[in-house]
C-alpha cells in the first residue's frame, strides 16, 4: 500500500519505506534570469498559460498533499516571484499549516517582505553563484548583482534565515569557495555549495564538476583542521553541514552527484504544468492537473507516481548511467523542474 495510514493519518510511503512529507511546487516556467547551467542556450518552449496550474488548482492540489501528511512546501520555478499572482499563491499556501519556504533568485524579494511575513515564511534559499559582479553577468546573462545583494541585506535586516545556493562549476567559480566561506565570518548566512548536475541542454560534463571531496580539500588548505566543524544534519537533509569555529554563518555541500542522499529522500515535485515527478532525475511523470481538470480524484495518480519511485536517482544507479547524455537529456531542463 502506498497511501498508508499511521494513527489514522494518511501518509505517502514508497515501496522502499520512504515517507514523503515535503512537496516542492514550481509555480512558473518563466524567469527574469538566464543561468547557463539551468536553461538551455536556445531557450525553452514555454508551456501555454492554459496548461499551467492556476492559483486555485495549486491550492487544491497542495491541500490534497497536506491531507496525505505533507508538512513542508517549497515554492520554486523558473523564478516563482515573477508570477503575477505569486502574492495570492503565497498567502493561500501560508494558511495550510505547513512549513512554507521558497527558492528564488532574490531579485524581486523587496516586493514581498510583508507577504512572506504574513504567510509565515521565515527562511529563503537565494541563488547566487559568484561574489563578482562581472561573473554574475556572465552566468545569469543579466546585470543584476547589486540589486540582488541589496535584497540579501534586506532579508537579513528583516530577520529571515538566508541560505545562499551556489552551483559550483570548475574553472568558473570554484576559485571563490573560500571567499564564500569568509562571507560567513560576519554574516549569519548558510552557504550551500551544490554539485553541478546534468539536465537536458545544460552542457554538463564531468570535467565541470567540483566534488564534495574537492570542496573539503580547499577548505582544509585554508583553515586549521580544528577550526572546521562538521555540524549536525537534520533528518532528510540533503546538505552536509559545516562551520568555521567562531564564524557567524555556516556552509554545507549538496552532493547529489558524488554522494546521492536518496535513501532518506522525502521529496516529491509538482511542475508548473501540473505533472508529478517523484525524483529530480526521473524521466516519467504523472499528469495530476489533467486528472483534476476532468473532475476526477488525483489520489490514484499520486499513488501510481510514488509506487514507481526508484531507490536511487530515477533508476540511474551507477555513475555511467547518471552521466549518460542519452539518459539525462530525456529529462526536463532544470528551469522546467524547479530544483
Ligand atoms: N529561480 C529560482 C532560483 O534560481 O533560485 C528557483 C528555481 S532554480 C531551478 C532552483 C535551484 O536549482 C537554484 O538554486 C539553482 O541554482 C539550482 N540549479 C539549477 N540548475 C542546476 C544544475 N544544473 N545543477 C545544480 N543545481 C542547479
Ligand atoms: Fe532562472 Fe533560477 Fe534557472 Fe537561474 S537558476 S535561470 S534564476 S530558474
Number of strands: 14
Side by side, the strands of the main sheet go: 9-10-11-8-7-6-5-4-3-12-13-14
CATH level 1 class label: Alpha Beta
Structural class determined from secondary elements: alpha/beta
List the helices and strands and how they pair.
Layout: E1 3-6, E2 9-12, E3 22-26, H1 55-67, E4 72-76, H2 86-93, E5 99-104, H3 113-119, E6 123-127, H4 133-140, H5 145-157, E7 161-168, H6 177-183, E8 189-195, H7 212-222, E9 228-230, E10 239-244, E11 250-254, E12 267-270, E13 275-277, E14 286-287, H8 288-293, H9 299-307, H10 319-322, H11 325-328
Parallel strand pairs: 3-4, 3-12, 4-5, 5-6, 6-7, 7-8, 8-11
Antiparallel strand pairs: 1-2, 9-10, 10-11, 12-13, 13-14
Helix pairs in contact: 1-2, 2-3
Notes on the protein architecture:
With 339 residues, the protein is of the alpha/beta class. It has eleven helices and 14 strands. The protein has a twelve-stranded mixed beta sheet with strand order 9-10-11-8-7-6-5-4-3-12-13-14. A hairpin with an 8-residue loop joins strand 9 (228-230) and strand 10. It is globular. The structure holds S-adenosylmethionine (SAM) and iron/sulfur cluster. S-adenosylmethionine binds at residues 31, 37-38, 76-77, 79, 103-105, 127, 165, 167, 194, 196-197, 199, 202, 334-335, 338-339.
Describe this structure in a few short sentences:
This protein is an alpha/beta fold and 339 residues long. Helices cover 27% and strands 20% of the residues.
Amino acid at each position: 500500500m502506498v497511501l498508508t495510514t499511521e494513527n489514522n493519518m494518511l501518509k505517502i510511503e514508497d515501496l522502499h519505506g520512504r515517507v514523503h512529507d515535503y512537496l516542492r511546487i514550481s509555480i512558473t516556467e518563466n524567469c527574469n534570469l538566464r543561468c547557463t547551467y539551468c536553461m538551455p542556450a536556445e531557450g525553452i518552449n514555454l508551456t501555454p498559460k492554459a496548461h499551467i496550474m492556476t492559483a486555485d488548482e495549486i491550492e487544491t492540489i497542495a491541500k490534497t498533499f497536506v491531507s496525505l501528511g505533507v508538512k513542508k512546501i517549497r515554492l520554486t520555478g523558473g523564478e516563482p516571484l515573477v508570477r503575477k499572482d505569486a502574492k495570492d499563491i503565497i498567502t493561500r499556501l501560508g494558511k495550510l499549516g505547513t512549513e512554507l519556504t521558497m527558492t528564488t533568485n532574490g531579485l524581486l524579494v523587496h516586493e514581498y517582505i510583508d507577504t512572506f511575513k504574513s504567510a509565515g515564511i521565515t527562511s529563503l534559499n537565494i541563488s547566487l553563484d559568484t561574489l563578482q559582479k562581472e561573473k554574475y553577468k556572465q552566468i545569469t546573462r543579466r546585470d543584476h548583482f547589486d540589486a540582488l545583494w541589496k535584497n540579501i541585506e534586506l532579508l537579513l535586516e528583516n530577520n529571515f534565515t538566508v541560505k545562499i545556493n551556489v552551483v559550483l562549476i570548475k574553472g568558473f567559480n570554484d576559485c571563490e569557495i573560500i571567499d564564500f566561506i569568509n562571507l560567513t565570518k560576519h554574516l549569519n548566512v548558510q552557504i550551500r555549495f551544490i554539485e553541478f548536475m546534468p539536465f537536458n541542454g545544460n552542457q554538463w560534463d564531468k570535467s565541470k564538476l567540483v566534488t564534495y571531496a574537492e570542496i573539503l580539500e580547499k577548505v582544509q588548505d585554508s583553515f586549521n583542521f580544528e577550526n572546521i566543524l562538521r555540524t549536525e544534519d537534520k533528518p532528510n537533509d540533503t546538505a552536509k553541514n559545516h562551520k568555521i569555529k567562531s564564524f557567524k554563518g555556516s556552509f554545507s555541500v549538496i552532493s547529489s552527484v558524488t554522494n546521492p542522499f536518496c535513501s532518506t529522500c522525502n521529496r516529491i515535485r509538482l511542475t508548473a504544468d501540473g505533472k508529478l515527478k517523484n525524483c529530480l532525475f526521473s524521466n516519467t511523470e504523472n499528469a495530476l492537473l489533467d486528472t483534476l481538470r476532468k473532475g476526477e480524484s488525483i489520489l490514484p495518480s499520486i499513488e501510481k507516481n510514488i509506487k514507481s519511485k526508484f531507490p536511487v536517482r530515477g533508476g540511474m544507479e551507477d555513475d555511467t548511467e547518471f552521466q549518460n547524455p542519452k539518459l539525462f537529456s530525456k529529462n526536463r531542463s532544470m528551469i522546467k523542474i524547479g530544483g
